[in-house]
Sequence to fold (487 residues):
Amino acid sequence: MASLFNILFALLAWTASSVLAVRNVKVQGSDYVNNATSDRFQILGVAYQPGGSAGFTAGSGVDPLSNGTNCLRDAALMQRLGINTIRIYNLDPSLNHDMCASIFNAVGIYMLLDVNSPLPNESLNPGDLTSSYNAAYLNRIFAVVEAFKNYPNTLGFFGGNEVIQNPGSQSTSPPYLRAVTRDLKNYIAKHSQRNIPVGYSAADVRDYLADTFAYLSCDINGSSSDPSRIDFFGLNSYSWCGNDATFQSSGYDILVQMFGNTTIPVFFSEYGCNKPQPRAFNEVQALYGPNMTGVMSGGIVYEYVQEASNNFGLVDLYDNGTAALRGDYDVLQKQYNKLDTKALQSGNASATALKSPPCSGNLITESDFSKSFMIPSVPTGGQTLIDNGIENPNNGKLVPVTQTVVSATVYASNGGTIKDLAIQPLAEDQSNTPNGQDTSGSASTSSTSASGTSTGSKPNSTSGCGCANPNFFLATLAFMAFVFQRA
Fold:
């Protein structure tokens, strides 16, 4: 009997410590590709920044990926929605993100991470590029790389977001964007066990959009190994508005033409016009339909959490941990459920055969856009960071996710309570896909409905992170071990 106990105890220990990991996704030509299956990876994403940029403050000890309890709740709702990617804008690289990253990993959700933040000295200042591009800034963005490089579900890093937007920025900023891309990619090459793509997220300023893409994606001196070349290009686009919008009226047809010969993945790094309300999200069928999937690699809906200053949120979050789905969540879920996810995974052989053009002023069409490909040198002290790594890096790692059931109360858009909300861990080679669920439609309507505002409280209280508690399977094994030990 003792030997059986030892076996059960060993099984318990193995189960508690084992960690399943998604397969890395790599850039292959203009596609994202699953390393294990070679399936094409299309981004079905959502922007994830609880509290918005105003909610991110220095020294608070909190960022969107620092609270495992909240991440478990949100991952369960995102998994039901059909999301496979989240974009996080503002992160504190000194915090522990292991549980949140591991939870999203368990459900097949990848992370696209901005390395900059709105805090002082943590982003390029378009009005003072020379001074803001310094070693302290590089230390900041390299710290984000260190914090997230070991998570297999890190899909990539944004080296910049909407830098080329204000008047004059198109003339001065482009060389610095390539410099930051170069520095990030060189740091990753020296200090990461795998190649992690680095890209840019552009504002939809149509006068400069094609030039921004051409400038950042060409090869200086014709070298395909040029580290200053971006690996992917994101576009924040809100041009499809309302039920009557079409592929043509939204200008999506122009975008497909503009990026038709892309040699890197292109996707919407934000989309989801919110006028008029409620949103219909019928652009989803166009974005993932035959007119666009040959060029675009999906998109990221803006945004998961409702902010007080806008009406873009899919979910209301409350300060005691409870949540309530908004109508937009249900509409987006229905749109996702219409998609043929098998077709989206089909490879595009021609997309891997194209080669990026050599950089030349002839690629640029606007007279006031930078035509200089003289990239700024690494600032003083920066090369030492690249060569030796930053001091005392906070390296993240996957940890066991043993709690799957969400303890917080979550309300459907119809006011009912969502029952049995939990994450469903996936196999190692799987990413999350829409699965036909109707989250609000399956909710109980006999419970107290949601009310109040996102700064108020709701009838629920949770303490601590439930992610460290044993699940039913582990508890059963432990009980069996106890019984056999006594026998």
In short: Residues 174-191 form the longest helix (18 residues). The CA atoms of residues 147 and 395 lie 5 Å apart. The chain has a mean pLDDT of 87. The first strand starts at residue 25 and ends at 28.
